[in-house]
Each structure stands twice: as structure tokens, then as C-alpha cells.
Amino acid sequence: MGKNIVILGSQWGDEGKGKIVDLLTERVQGVVRFQGGHNAGHTLVVDGKKTVLHLLPSGILHPGVSCMIGNGVVLSLAELQKEITLLEDSGVAVRSQLKISGACPLLMPYHVALDLARETKRGMRLIGTTGRGIGPAYEDKVARRSIRFADLLDVDHFSELLKENLEYHNFMLKNYFMTSTFDYAAVYEETLTLGNNLLSMIADVPQLIATHRRRGDSLLFEGAQGTFLDIDHGTYPYVTSSNTTAGGACTGSGLGPRYINYILGITKAYTTRVGSGPFPTELIGPLGDALVELGQEFGATTGRRRRCGWFDAVAMRRASEINSLSGLCITKLDVLDTFDTIQIAVAYEEGRQTIDGRTPIKPIYEEMPGWKTSIVGIDSWSKLPEKAKAYVKRIENLLEVPVAMVSTGPDRRNTIELAPIF
Ligand code: GDP
Ligand code: IMO
Ligand code: MG
């Protein structure tokens, strides 16, 4: 029997999802992206060679594995085309592996302009978005005015939709945001040209998933962003515009909820966040700077410096509950190699369980001794120093979720497997 495995971020994104999806792709027949868009930046390192993916599923480097972009993803044709060309130039047969749902809402150039204009308007209260147009693209989806990928199959229909959309958005851009507008003919031409190049990959993704299941294949469902960036369960309004939590894997792909076999939560051994919003365990000062430096915490999409802090077991317990995590993968454990002591937030003052964003939260920390030796690249549990093992086990105890994997470096091979996922 095949297995359907959901892999998602349990913090604020950039937990190392790409690396783990790439690694586990060895054991599956397909990988599905189900939400987000090219705001994601998933880094894969294979034999020292780094690849950053934004829209393509992180299974794409494995020849013959089917890669699917589900209906929950907002699709920028221009960005997809760029990414495909880049990978094809380095010898990856993207087109023969990739299938794209016709129900994907298109992320259009005016969405990017709206995203940037909104951020400017918010001033000091800006979200700190990736500036990729994600929010406005999802707004159009929910407002039922999106142009979807399949709409490009009927040129007249597309033309009509584009006119309606431009009439509306140009009005806002011009009169509300007082910025430049978009020319119908130019957007029409550009979109159709890109569409003609990409439409050969259109597919009924729910049907493909069903076929895989009947065949006994295993599939990975690759989350983007992280639990606390979820539009419903995250630190609203400092969130992204999609459901990043486990339920999103079903709605964003067409996988029936009963067919999920395992939900793997990826978490860093500490915490990071890019953009604005509450972050209870954030370290401002030399310790935070050390984490940025040691962990090379700069965004894979925008290059922004990531905010860093200690592991937050309170937030993680909530992430575990919301996602019904089957197991954990702790990444970047090696980044803590040089610390004398390591802190874990085990509670919040006043016994709070949630981060509402309005009142500052003071975490209560527990201190653990550092292991003070390099664990980079260690690939078996028995070779880890006792103090590193104790840290991993403490996280497991606090969260009551088994640790299935530990990552000790960016490369595919720098991984310890502790419990079976398949
Ligand atoms: P994603 O968005 O969840 O896929 O994560 P990103 O790719 O944005 O960020 C994770 C970064 O950490 C990437 O640069 C990875 O190459 C790197 N990385 C992943 N796992 C490890 C690890 O165990 N140790 C170290 N040092 N780096 C890692
Ligand atoms: P991966 O998949 C980290 C953050 C942005 C901002 C907020 C909203 O690589 O983990 P958006 O552009 O989505 O409207 O921005 O969400 N954000 C991410 N942070 N990793 C990501 O993706 C992110 N995608 C969006 O920084 O705070
Ligand atoms: Mg990332």
C-alpha cells in the first residue's frame, strides 16, 4: 500500500522543508505543492550543489517522479517559466515531470503592484510580505474573480475576464493607491504567450492523485510557509494568505482527508521569522546575531535577514495539535554546536497558550547545556553527543510527538532517521 505523507512547516517558514522533501522523494512516485506561490523559497543541496525552488515541487530533481502543482497554489506564469528555464538549462527534464492544476488562480502582474502599494500604505504597520503579489492573488480567488489557469484554454473567455479584472484593479491602483495602471493589450499578450508555453502541462490533479492511490504509489504533499503564517491559525494579520496547516494539503490538492497516512512537522532546533509580527522567543542582540550568522539566516526568496530566537515549545505544542503531527523533523541542530547553554521556552507567563499579537508575551525558559562540538553531517543517532541527544529528547517530551528525523547540515545526506515514516 502506498502512503500519502504531508510535510509542512511548524513555525514561521524556512524550517528546511525543501531539503526533507527532496530527501524523502527517493521513496515516492509523486510530490504535490498545495498552497502558497513563489513567496516560498525551498533550498535543496545535493552533493554541494544548491538549488532554490519557488513554485516547483522539491521532488523535481529526481528523474521520473511526478511533480504536481495543486489548485491551492497561486500561479505566476512568468515566475514558473523562469524557474523551468533555469532548471532545464542545468539538465532537469521539468516538462516531462510537471503537471499543473487548471484550477490554479493566476498570479498576475497587477497583483504584485497591489501588494507593494498596500505595504506602502500600511507604513509602519507593514506586514513585510515577500512583495510577490500573494495576498492580492488570493483575494481575487476568494472574491470569485480570479483568472484560473484553465481559463487560458478559451481565449475569448480569458479576454473578458482580464478586462473585468483590469477595470477593477486599475481603478484601485489609480484612484486609491495613486500609482501606475496596467495596459490591457500588454497583459493580454504576455499572459497568452506564457500560457501557450505552459498549457501542455495542465492536468486534473485530483484525478492524478486518485490514480496514484489506486496504483499503490506513495506521494508527498509539500507545504510552503509555516503554521503560524496560516491565514486562520497564524499570528493574524502578520500571516500569509493561504492555509499552511495540514488541512490545506487536502483542500489545496484534492486529496481526501482519510487518505493522509502521516503528517511530518518540520521545525528548526531554534526559531526564525521573516517580516513583521509577534515572536515571543526572539533574541535581539549578540545571541540573535550569532544565530543569524551560524545558521546563515537570510531569506531564500528575498534575501532578507531572518529574525532569530530560541525554540518555543509552547507555540510548537499548538502547531502539533492544529496539524495533528505524526512526527517531527528537527533541522539545523548543528547551528547550536557552539553555544554554552541553550534555552527552550516551556511556558508563557500568565499561563497563556496562544500568541494574540496584542499583548507582549514573556516566555519562561528552561536551560540545557550545549554539546560544544561539531555535529555537522552526522547521519546516525549513535554518533550524536549525549547532550545533543538530550536536547532532542527534551523537545520530544515537551511536545509529546516522536522525533522521526534530525538534520545536521544542508546536504541531503546530513540527516538522521530515527523512526519510520513510510
Ligand atoms: P524551507 O523554506 O523550509 O525549504 O527552508 P529554506 O530553504 O528557506 O531555509 C532553510 C535553510 O537551511 C536552507 O539554506 C538550507 O540549505 C539550510 N538547511 C536545511 N537543513 C539544514 C541543517 O540541518 N543544517 C544547516 N546548517 N542548514 C540546513
Ligand atoms: P517558505 O515556504 C518564511 C512571510 C513573509 C511575510 C508574510 C506574508 O520558504 O517557508 P506573503 O508574501 O506571503 O504575503 O508574506 O509571510 N513568508 C514567509 N516566511 N518562509 C516563507 O516561505 C514565506 N512566505 C511568506 O515574510 O512575513
Ligand atoms: Mg524558505
End-to-end separation in angstroms reads 10 Å
Task: Catalogue the ligands.
Answer: guanosine-5'-diphosphate, 6-O-phosphoryl inosine monophosphate, magnesium ion
User: How many individual β-strands?
Assistant: 17
Structural class: alpha/beta
Order of helices and strands: EHEEEEHHEHHHHEHEHEEHEEHEEEHEE
Low-confidence stretches: none
Give an overview in words.
With 422 residues, this protein is of the alpha/beta class. Helix content is 32%, strand content 18%. The chain has twelve helices and 17 strands. The strands form four sheets. It has a ten-stranded mixed beta sheet with strand order 7-6-5-2-8-1-9-13-16-17, sandwiched between helices. Strands 12-14-15 form a three-stranded mixed beta sheet. It starts with a strand and ends in a 5-residue tail after the last strand. The mean pLDDT is 97. 6-O-phosphoryl inosine monophosphate is lined by residues 9, 12-14, 39-42, 127-130, 132, 134-135, 224-226, 229, 240-241, 274-275, 300.
Could you list some keywords that capture this structure?
18% strand; binds guanosine-5'-diphosphate; alpha/beta; binds 6-O-phosphoryl inosine monophosphate; 422 residues; binds magnesium ion; 10-stranded mixed β-sheet; single chain; 3-stranded mixed β-sheet
